[in-house]
Amino acid sequence: METGLSPELLLKAAAVHGTPLYAYDQHSIESQYAKLQTAFSAFQPSIFYACKALSNINILRILNRLGAGIDCVSINEVRLAQMAGVSSQQIIFTPNSVAMDEYHEAVALGVNINIDNLSILQEFGSHYGSRYPVLVRINPHILAGGNLKISTGHEDSKFGISVTQADKILQIVEETGVVVKGLHIHTGSEIKDIDVYIKGLELILSTAQQFDGLEIIDLGGGFKVPYVPGEQGTDLHTLGERMADVFEQHKQSTGNSYRIWFEPGKFLVSECGYLLVKANVIKKGPSRMFVGVDSGFNHLIRPMFYDAYHHMDNLSHPDAPPTVYNVVGNICETDTFAWDRQLPEVQPGDILSFRNAGAYGFEMSSRFNSRARPAEVLISHGEITLIRKRETFEDILAGQLY
Ligand code: LLP
To answer: How much distance in Å is there from the Cα of 188 to the middle of ligand 1?
Structure first.
């Protein structure tokens, strides 16, 4: 786990902007992006940042300046990417279960489109024929990922068109003239096992043989980052080497090569983010000590939704004696961030931080209990910049008719 932002800077950010606060380290994003480029340099893929992980427009700008495109799941994400200055060719629209209207909008915006079901492919093809080539998302029937909720490539998953239905895709191509310019696969999130990627890659390459004129293979995202101290993420260096071998063999045996795309989210922005909270209450029960903080699953839902571990630091008293707590939020429901967590003894008013909060942190936040969402700051070269204002009561009321 990298050291990242210093406690002093984080404390300063909390002092200036209050808590709860999301703080993002720009350097971390840049260094994660560079790691991907190095690991995959043999085949120089295009990287499309999966902005569902963290869609603040400033983050999109940073990644686009580094050379990344943006992978979007909704038209509003597409609009954000375009507002961030990302060109249409650098945007992929990979929705699921959306109506045809959204595809029409995506066509009007000129972005790459990834279709993940047969009925939409049929409708799209009947409407656009060969005028708007698309990618098709294949479900590879591979069960993998950190948690069933984030596994998307298994047979029972709602995502993609089953690899066993490739003949149906070809039938639609034949009937409507729709051009399939690429195949897409995304097996799940937090995949450490390199064999899973290789299996998916081999499967998609063999499926690709059935399609004429295919240009792109989009391998999705899902690279694992360490959350628990001592844990290892995906070994990207080995993955890059093994993928390069597979591409080379494929080229030699079939004569075919493709442009390769990836869509990582977590890998690029998980480690950059810290959720800073304040300890409001220390409660000593008969069997447990609780720290109650000024946040809850309305701000960081991953521990409750995926049983995810987020490492914590007591920034105010890092050298206090170790004490074991259940760290809980202030929501009117059980919202335990951490069970039996050893932390330097916490005093009311201490600033605590959750690491790895950049990906799917703010992005999955809500206004549950009519509590406002946190502010966000970007930290670069020691400078703290507010990139999203803390919500107010007026924001909560906005749009309500009374
Ligand atoms: N591409 C597609 C089509 C996806 O569905 C996803 C994630 C990604 C790329 C990026 O995956 P990543 O590199 O971030 O693993 N909220 C969950 C993660 C859900 C991921 C959904 N799809 C979490 O907090 O763990």
So the answer is: 7
With H, G, I as helix, E, B as strand and everything else as coil, classify residue 292: strand
pLDDT in tens, 236-259: 999 999 999 999 999 999 999 999
**pTM for the structure as a whole:** 0.97
Predicted pLDDT at 3: 63
222 C-alpha vs ligand 1 centroid, how far in Å? 6
Domain boundary assignment for the chain: 40-265, 273-397
Instruction: Indicate the SS3 state at residue 154.
Output: coil
In the chain, which stretches have pLDDT less than 50? 1-2
Is residue 218 within 6 Å of ligand 1 at its C-beta? no
Q: Are 29 and 35 in contact (CB under 8 A)?
A: no
Which ligand 1 atom is at minimum distance from the Cα of 190? 15
pLDDT at 78: 98
Ligand 1 neighbourhood includes 132 CB (under 6 angstroms): no
Query: Which pLDDT value is given to residue 1?
Result: 44
Share of residues in the chain with pLDDT > 90 (%): 91
Q: Which atom of ligand 1 is nearest to the CA of 264?
A: 13
How far, in Å, are 136, 187, 209, 243 from residue 198 at the CA level? 19, 11, 17, 7
Residues 273-397, CATH architecture = Beta Barrel (2.40)
* CA distances in angstroms from 89 to 94, 109, 124, 197, listed in the order given: 14, 10, 19, 26
User: ∠48-52-53 over CA atoms, to 5°?
Assistant: 90
332 is catalytic: yes
The two domains 40-265 and 273-397 share their CATH topology (first three levels equal): no
Residues 6+ apart with CB under 8 A from 402: none
Ligand 1 pocket test: pick from 148, 159, 185, 189 the residue with the most ligand atoms within 8 Å of its Cβ: 189
CATH architecture type of domain 40-265: Alpha-Beta Barrel (3.20)
Q: What pLDDT shows up at residue 2?
A: 47
Q: Is 140 in the pocket of ligand 1 (CB under 6 A)?
A: no
DSSP classification of residue 42: T
Q: Write down the pLDDT at residue 380.
A: 98
Predicted confidence (pLDDT) per residue in 125-184, tens digit: 999 999 999 999 998 887 766 667 767 777 777 888 988 999 999 999 999 999 999 999
Beta-strand ranges (E) seen in 212-358 are: 216-218, 259-262, 273-284, 289-293, 312-314, 322-328, 336-344, 351-354
Per-residue exposure over 123-152, b if at least 16 CB sit within 10 Å of its own CB, e if not:
bbbeebeeebbbbbbbbbbbbbbbeeebbb
